[in-house]
């Protein structure tokens, strides 16, 4: 492609094509872009004319990307994602000369681990930090779209092996905690867990699989009273005496000190792993990059 052609390429037309491809129809794209359908159709034809390729095929009254269209869409996606990334990075760098780091964290990640990560970020340079907690799938999409810089999870996040990078940063021992009324279960642990009510992580959790394997190997049957991926809720239910909670000891240490929960015993060989993930970016967030390279814990 010549330099002259690049100068002639209308990036408004390229963006219109990109939106049409994402929305799947000219009508939906026109509504999103707030321009008329005839105008949008004309500008798409102008882009196809300048490229010398048809970008869509019409089958059963629906638009489908042609082979050339699929290739053009891949490049357009990179162009506009990179443009958004550039604006975000420049705006963040220009605000008080301070780098802004956005960290996503699953509800199941202990708050003490989130706190340590934030404190490590402050040590690595002049920065401000935002923390967004939520569902793993949602946060992973936010990471891939560069809306957050880092993701803390209790499993290795995977979406696109070429764009998402992760590393384990902590391996935490798991104990069974409970309200003081269950103190007699300390005797003959772990066999004393037989038939007891448990508040366990949801099925997506790596710890859930570790627990199921542990109970099976030790021939222990438990009563699964409740499931939650939110560690804070799990701790609250444990305090109320709803059931026993298998949890990373560090996540319960404050309540243990306050004697609102007691440790019945450690589950030998069962660990909660915490992972830190980032997405490939053309313009790296310098603090996030340092955190990914550092030995944090």
TrEMBL record:
Oxidoreductase keyword on record: no
InterPro entries for this protein: LysR_HTH_N (IPR000847), LysR_subst-bd (IPR005119), WH-like_DNA-bd_sf (IPR036388), WH_DNA-bd_sf (IPR036390)
Record domain HTH lysR-type: where: 9-66
Biological processes per GO annotation: regulation of DNA-templated transcription initiation
Origin: domain of life: Bacteria
Pfam families: HTH_1 (PF00126), LysR_substrate (PF03466)
Record family assignment: Belongs to the LysR transcriptional regulatory family.
Protein's name in the database: LysR family transcriptional regulator
Organism: Bdellovibrio bacteriovorus
